[in-house]
Structures are given as C-alpha cells and as structure tokens.
Write a structure and sequence with these properties.
The chain is mainly beta and 264 residues long. The chain is built from three helices and 15 strands. Strands 1, 2, 3, 6, 7, 11, 12, 14 and 15 form a nine-stranded mixed sheet that branches. A hairpin with a 5-residue loop joins strand 4 and strand 5. The longest helix has 15 residues. The chain is globular, with a radius of gyration of 23 Å.
Length: 264
C-alpha cells in the first residue's frame, strides 16, 4: 500500500510543476543616457542609445573608439535634440558626431562646466523627453600626475581624498593592460594592496601588472553616479539599478548624468 501512494504523490507533484507558457510582447525602446560632466574639459559628451528590446539589431560594421555605442553592441540614437542648461539659464545645444558618415549617438556640448553650479539635461528623441539634473562637486582640479615605483609583492596604493562640497562619494579607477579596476566608495581613505585581484574579471586578474605604467585616478562624484554604481540589477530579488533620470534609463557602463572633478 505504501508504494502506490508514493507513486500517486509523485505524479501529483509533477502535475503541479506545469507552469504553462506565455509570449511576452515586445516593448518600445527607451532612451538610455550616458554622461559625465567634467570641469577639466572644454566640451561634454552625452551618449544616447536605445534599450535593447529585440526589435532591432546592433550594427557591427562601424567599430572603433570613436563609435563607442556600436562597438559595445548598442543601438545609437541619432537626430536627438540634446540641450544642457546651466544655473544662469544659459542653454547649450549639443551636436552629434559621425564616423564615415554614420551616426554615433555621441553628442558634444561646447561648454566648460563650473564646480558648484547646477546643470539640467534635456533630451528629446523617439517621441519621448528625458530630463536629469546635477550639481557639479566643488573639487580641486587635478594636479600633474607623478610616477612612483610600485612593487606589488609588498607595496600598497594608499589614497586620501579631501572633503568635497556637493560630492556624495568618490570614484576610483586603476588603468590596466587588459581590464581596468574601478570602485565607488564613500570612504575618504582607501588602501589597495599589491596582490589585489579584480573581482569583475573572468579569471580574477591582478589589478597591478609588472612592467607597466598604470594610472590611478580619483573623481569626486554626485548622487547620480554614486547611486548607479552602488546598485545593480539583481535577478533574485528584482531590485534594479537606482535611476535618477526622468523619462529614461541610466546606463550600465559608464554612466548616467553625473559629475566629477578628477584629481590625484
């Protein structure tokens, strides 16, 4: 009597696992914004691309450093109206760059942003309007970088950041021959040992490489960038990226509307 009952229970369990299936309709693409306002530059780059919905495929014919969206497998948005307004009410209109006559989705704004000033970005494309705003942290401009010897067997890279007005945190990056290492932190003192490995690489590559000059850069960043980098899209909890862009999406690498002044 035990065996038939167990068989019936197992059959009932199998029947309960039939969840069925349904077709999810394709959605219209949203506007994805990548942008960092950098006071050390005389023009600012705004990158626009479509969220991938399966309706269109990326174009792989025009790859290279001047075409970052296509090179990364994205679909650039061309013909957008992109404007950046500063705290005085002055409005600057961006111009889209092209590679071999093809649109790139990269829009350049001819402006040197001022630390401590608020800026508002407006993007009109795909029948939608996207807005975002930020206050540029009031950081001291970067000094000329110095080259120091570093032995990864026993040295540690120590960085102490000053307190910066309007900064939510700090973004640190170490360039490397294969894959750079980056992190965002609210701590003003950071120490990276010579044997540190990059957790974001497939084979846990070392951060420091013998025989190469590697640049360590620190930027004071606003709430937009800090929230983006400290969050993630979690497939288990459903918690997604923290997005401060209205009418559109933040981006994966690098960046939604953010600000930073680099220094060493």
């Amino acid at each position: 009597m035990v065996r038939p009952a167990a068989a019936l229970l197992f059959a009932a369990m199998l029947a309960g696992c039939d969840l069925g299936s349904s077709t999810i309709p394709q959605t219209d693409p949203q506007i994805v914004v990548h942008a960092v306002l950098n006071p050390s530059l005389d023009q600012q780059a705004i990158l626009l691309e479509e969220s991938l919905t399966g309706k269109a495929q990326p174009d792989s014919l025009f790859l290279g450093k001047d075409n970052p969206i296509t090179t990364d497998g994205g679909i650039p948005i061309s013909g957008a109206n992109v404007q950046l307004e500063d705290g005085t009410g002055a409005i600057y209109t961006a111009t889209e760059t092209r590679v071999s006559g093809q649109p790139t989705g990269v829009y350049m704004v001819p402006i040197t942003v001022q630390p401590g000033m608020r800026y508002r970005l407006t993007v009109q494309a795909l029948g939608k309007t996207v807005t975002a705003s930020t206050v540029v942290p009031r950081a001291t401009p970067a000094a000329v970088a110095t080259i120091v010897p570093f032995n990864r067997d026993h040295d540690t890279a120590k960085v102490s950041m000053p307190e910066v007005e309007f900064a939510r945190g700090y973004f640190l990056r170490i360039d490397a021959p294969i894959s750079g290492f980056s992190m965002v932190t609210s701590d003003r003192s950071v120490a990276i040992t010579g044997d540190t490995r990059n957790l974001y690489t497939e084979n846990l590559l070392r951060v420091f490489w013998p025989g190469f000059e590697q640049t360590l850069t620190v930027a004071a960043v606003d709430t937009n960038l800090y929230d983006y980098y400290r969050s993630r899209s979690d497939p288990f909890s459903g918690i997604g990226l923290i997005n401060h862009v209205q009418g559109g999406l933040g981006s994966s690498d690098p960046l939604q509307l953010s600000s930073g002044a680099c220094w060493t």
